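Record 1 of the preview.
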Amino acid sequence: MRLEGYQNSPCNLCPRECGALRREGKSGYCLSDNRILVARASLHMWEEPCISGETGSGTVFFSGCSLRCVYCQNFEIAAAGKGKQITVEELSALFISLQQAGAANINLVTPDHYVLEIMEAVHRAKRQGLEIPVVYNCSGYAKAGIIRKLRGIVDIFLTDFKYMERELAGRLSGAPDYPETAKGALAAMVETAGEPFFDEKGMMKGGVIVRHLLLPGHRKNAKAVIRYVHEAFGERVILSLMNQYTPMGRLSCGENCRELLRRVTRREYEDVVDYALSLGIENAFIQEGETAKESFIPDFDESGFL
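->
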């Protein structure tokens, strides 16, 4: 599918604009080429309650990513090391299969580098009877212009907002431009999806949820993110404050990120939640109990396809 001003070869779909000739089989910064690679597709119960509900969110995990987070929780697929190759037609059929299985929505996880194929697949699926909402589950490191083109394709944006500190974004994710990029992308998401709205069962049908994963030792950054999102967008977005950071076994960055070798403490998380409450934030999800466990990370063994 063509998207005026944007293309995947030479690729300019993400803020990196690496110019990879993906249609010729060359991998871009995201480690993706001309293939659609999906690592898992299944009903997922671990999203926010208004996304997963009682039946589960129909998640489709795409391989590859335009960030280089040293603490990546889904490293197996972010590095494009795992994934089943499928066509646009098969992707469209997968959406329909998830709907038939009772999915509350179609949840596109790390979709940015496949946005052209996704748009075509959603168009096809809607012609074939897709009725449930489409969720764009992304890192927040995206082009505002592309986000605006998703009107009528995407109903809900489930986006990260990782950093307000350029140094931290560069050191931990290889993207010092993340703060300004995420600001523009989030503004475009709110413009495109509108204010949050729900059905009679409390399931989200449209709008924006902004996630922030608290990293150990980085309460200042978390508070800056929360303050910015609240002051810029108020109740037009819902915040989701996450404490589930898990130090993965592959994390070996020495002095560059030694603070990440532990989990977030209860005191750290409660302090950030209290700060959000002090700002008068009313629409927010918080996590309780022991969530920082690897059991919250799906198995990416290509066995989850319906």
